[in-house]
Design a protein that fits this description.
single chain; 179 residues; mainly alpha; rod-shaped
């Protein structure tokens, strides 16, 4: 029995040693597998890091471009604001001038009335002088004078028609001698 114990002992030692060797081999292969997985993971992380760095660089460039565009837009907005202020000033100036238009229109119509009066008066004088001339002097009037009298008469009639149809100016502001 003691002998069997000794026989068992080398077998068991051998078996135990084989088990230990088997476990060491298993641990070694596990460790190699873990190293491979770690290296693959490390490689993937490096790729992801590189991709993130590229994304950051692209985003920073985009940010710089947006900042340049923002500065440009601010400049354009300021230019537009200045143009609007200038336009507003011109509008106010035009409004101020437009307020004077009715008075100027009345003044123009008054001057036209006076001009008509003087044309009518001149025409009447010319016609009266023509009628007072003796028959022998009438043919001596040049054709230009006769044309002038005709033009005055036509201008007077046209202006009178316009004045009578004008409703923008009250009749009290028209020249009193024109009817």
């Amino acid at each position: 029995m003691a002998n069997t114990k000794l026989n068992n002992s080398p077998n068991s030692n051998l078996k135990s040693l084989q088990n230990i060797m088997h476990e060491i081999e298993y641990l070694r292969s596990s460790r190699e597998q873990q190293m491979e997985e770690t290296m693959l993971c490390n490689h993937r992380l490096e790729q992801e890091l590189w991709s993130c760095k590229e994304t950051i660089a692209a985003l920073e460039e985009s940010n710089r471009a947006l900042n340049r565009e923002q500065v440009s837009m601010r400049r354009k907005v300021e230019e537009a604001r200045q143009a609007l202020l200038s336009g507003l000033g011109k509008v106010k100036e035009l409004e101020s001038k437009a307020n004077h238009v009715p008075a100027l229109q009345r003044h123009v119509l008054q001057l036209e009335s006076e001009l008509l009066y003087y044309r009518k008066d001149l025409l009447c004088r010319l016609v009266c002088e023509y009628k007072e001339m003796s028959g022998t002097l009438r043919p001596l009037l040049c054709s230009n004078t006769m044309w002038w009298i005709g033009w005055l008469a036509q201008s007077l009639m046209t202006s009178l028609l316009i004045m009578r149809h004008s409703t923008t100016v009250p009749s009290s502001t028209r020249f009193p001698l024109i009817t």
